[in-house]
Structures are given as structure tokens and as C-alpha cells.
């Protein structure tokens, strides 16, 4: 007879084990015992069930590296994937992200015209159908996460406005779910980037973080306070790109009455370089290789304007770190000390004394990993919830 509450306790314990290997990487059974406080036999039983369900793998450690009885190594199975999509003004990027954060497949679909919500859903569905017969033939897809450069209503995933995409009240979650037949999560791209960098990247382990993402659509932001994402009452927090920084030098102002993302702009960098429609690695390489004084002058100008905006964030939020992603990271590349100095010179000294400005370490994968994290949320909360219709391998032996 099963006692009341047994199933829920087991579900929570399975989630704890899966969450450990998802967030921390491969762990020995001994480490899992220490981290969870569960006894060794319970850990062995829970790991066995997760293995049988295809959620984790278990391997023997290298016996030459340990003294005494070796403890098996448990890892998230990379064949469990979420599909991540990031529609932008110049391209739609789609990737299959493993439960271990590996990228199993990736596609950038360049666009000369703005993509609609319906076209986005169709592109995601077509890509999944192709990958099921090719790159993902040995994988299981548990859901879709969409990172949108716009205001996403938290309670239902409705895109209230993505101005650069010209989306307004777009039901992208329903469109993608209907097109793919998969559970779908939608959030602001910078919010997801902040979560990804906090869990796995430059802000890992930090409690107070400001994240700014620079993309083709402009500048978005995310906040981590006391180790938790801050979304605001409806999910719209972090729109740093819409702030109006005070620009001390009139010669630095290029967009009178404009907001931050009008002044600090990927499009302006591309025009100065004479480029169109390139991805971030290509843009970064072009900036690094350029010896054109006009390019140097524009990056310096944007760096000065950005510093003022960051100083405002430091004064208001007193973060431990500011993490810059996308083209904003390129502005800090090779000039981190200069940027930090500019920020501190415009901040209250006490607020700025502990702040550290860092580039996003997940680079081009940050938004995709963040979107996948949203798609994995249901599975991580209840590891068997999305897999109950899958036969238990042990039952068929």
C-alpha cells in the first residue's frame, strides 16, 4: 500500500536529482547524496528510475583517479532537448539545446523582410520536422522556448509589442504550440539571457546582477536581485534600451530626443563598417580587424553613452556585476578598464566600488540557452510529467 504523499515526495526527489545534474553538470552518486541529504540507497533508486526514463546517463568513473570504492557518475542525457527560437529583424535563429546545455543543432535563417508571428511558428515547425529525421533522430524534444525582443506578458506569453518586429498583441505561444504540437514558453529575450548568464555564465553564483543585451532590435535588459529574476508586475521589467541617458557632450548625441538604443546601436556599427545582415561573430571579427578611424570614433562614442546609462543602473540598483551581451560586449572588448572607469566616474562612489563589468560568456548561445531553460521548466519540476506516455523500458524486458 502506498502511503499518502509518497508520489509527491518521490516526484520532488526525482526533480532534485535531475536539477542537480542539469545545473551543476555530471555528479557522482556520492556528491548527490551529500547535496540532497538523501541516503545512498534512495539515490541509487532515484537515479535508476531517471536512467530508465532516459533523462540521465550513468557511467563508471576512472578508477585510477580515486581511492576506495568509486561512485558512478550521473549526467543529464544530452538527447533530451528543447527547441529554442529567437526571431529578430534580420534573422530567425533556431537551435536544439540539450538538457546539459549542449547545442545539438543550430540554424540561422536570414531575412530581408520582417518575420511575422505566423511565419515564425511555421519556420520553427518546419525546422523541427526536418531535424526529427536528421540531426535529432535519436533525441527527444520536450518543448519549445521563444526569446522575443519585446514586451512579453508573463501570465500568458502574449507579445504586447515587439516594435522593431512590428508585432502587437501577438499570441506567439499559441501559434508555436499549435504548429509544433509541443509545450511552448515565451519570454523577453534579454530576460532569458540574464537567466542563462546567471545560471551558467558570467553571473553564475552572483546575487545582484544587471544584464544588458544588445541585438539587432536594440537593447533589452534583465535583472537578478537576491538571486532571483525580477520581472515586474506584468513581466516587462528591464527595458534599459528605452531609457534616456544624459549625454554630456553634444557631439556624442546622434539621435536628438532618442533613447539609449537609438544612440548605442548595432545598426550604427554596421553602417560605419559598411556591413549588412551579419551575425555577431562576424561583426565582432570586423570590429577587431578594422583600422578605420571612423569605426574607432563610433565605438568610443557609443562606449561613452553606454557608460552613462550603466552608471544610472549602478546608482539605482547597486549590482555586484553588469553583464553585457551581444554587440554591447564588443564595445567592452579590449576596453573593459576604460568602460569601468567611465561608469565609476559617473556613479556614486560607494555604489560603484564593488561593481564589475563583464562580457557574457555564453556568447551567441546565451538567448538560446535561456529560451531552452524556459522550455525545460515543466520537466525539471516534474521529471515524469511529460514522459508518462513513454513506455518504461524496464517494463518491457
UniProtKB/TrEMBL annotation:
Domain of life according to the entry: Bacteria
Pfam (any one): ROK
Family statement: Belongs to the ROK (NagC/XylR) family.
PANTHER family named in the record: BIFUNCTIONAL UDP-N-ACETYLGLUCOSAMINE 2-EPIMERASE_N-ACETYLMANNOSAMINE KINASE (PTHR18964:SF149), ROK (REPRESSOR, ORF, KINASE) FAMILY (PTHR18964)
Protein name: ROK family transcriptional regulator
Species this protein is from: Microbacterium schleiferi
Amino acid at each position: 500500500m502506498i502511503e499518502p504523499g509518497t508520489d509527491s515526495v518521490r516526484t520532488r526527489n526525482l526533480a532534485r536529482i535531475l536539477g542537480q545534474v542539469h545545473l551543476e553538470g555530471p555528479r557522482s552518486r556520492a556528491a548527490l547524496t551529500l547535496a540532497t541529504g538523501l541516503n545512498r540507497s534512495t539515490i541509487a533508486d532515484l537515479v535508476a528510475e531517471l536512467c530508465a526514463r532516459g533523462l540521465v546517463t550513468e557511467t563508471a568513473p576512472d578508477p585510477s583517479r580515486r581511492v576506495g570504492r568509486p561512485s558512478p557518475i550521473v549526467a543529464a542525457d544530452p538527447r533530451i532537448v528543447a527547441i529554442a527560437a529567437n526571431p529578430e529583424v534580420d534573422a530567425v535563429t533556431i537551435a536544439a539545446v540539450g538538457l546539459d546545455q549542449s547545442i545539438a543543432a543550430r540554424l540561422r535563417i536570414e531575412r530581408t523582410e520582417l518575420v511575422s508571428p505566423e511565419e515564425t511558428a511555421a519556420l520553427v515547425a518546419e525546422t523541427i520536422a526536418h531535424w526529427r529525421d536528421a540531426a535529432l533522430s535519436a533525441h527527444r524534444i520536450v518543448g519549445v522556448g521563444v526569446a522575443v525582443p519585446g514586451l512579453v506578458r508573463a501570465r500568458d506569453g502574449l507579445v504586447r509589442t515587439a516594435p522593431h518586429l512590428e508585432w502587437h498583441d501577438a499570441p506567439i505561444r499559441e501559434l508555436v504550440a499549435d504548429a509544433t504540437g509541443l509545450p511552448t514558453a515565451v519570454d523577453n529575450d534579454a530576460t532569458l539571457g540574464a537567466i542563462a548568464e546567471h545560471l551558467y555564465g558570467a553571473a553564475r553564483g552572483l546575487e545582484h546582477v544587471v544584464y544588458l543585451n544588445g541585438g539587432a532590435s536594440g537593447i533589452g535588459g534583465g535583472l537578478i536581485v537576491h538571486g532571483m529574476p525580477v520581472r515586474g508586475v506584468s513581466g516587462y521589467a528591464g527595458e534599459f534600451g528605452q531609457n534616456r541617458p544624459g549625454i554630456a557632450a553634444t557631439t556624442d548625441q546622434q539621435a536628438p530626443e532618442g533613447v539609449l538604443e537609438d544612440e548605442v546601436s548595432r545598426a550604427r556599427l554596421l553602417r560605419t563598417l559598411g556591413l549588412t545582415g551579419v551575425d555577431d561573430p562576424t561583426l565582432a571579427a570586423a570590429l577587431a580587424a578594422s583600422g578605420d578611424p571612423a569605426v574607432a570614433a563610433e565605438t568610443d562614442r557609443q562606449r561613452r553613452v553606454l557608460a552613462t546609462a550603466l552608471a544610472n543602473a549602478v546608482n539605482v540598483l547597486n549590482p555586484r556585476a553588469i553583464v553585457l551581451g551581444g554587440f554591447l560586449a564588443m564595445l567592452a572588448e579590449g576596453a573593459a578598464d576604460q568602460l569601468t572607469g567611465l561608469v565609476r566616474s559617473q556613479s556614486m562612489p560607494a555604489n560603484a566600488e564593488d561593481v564589475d563589468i563583464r562580457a557574457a560568456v555564453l556568447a551567441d548561445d546565451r538567448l538560446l540557452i535561456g529560451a531552452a531553460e524556459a522550455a525545460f521548466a515543466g520537466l525539471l519540476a516534474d521529471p515524469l510529467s511529460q514522459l508518462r506516455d513513454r513506455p518504461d523500458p524496464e517494463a518491457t524486458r
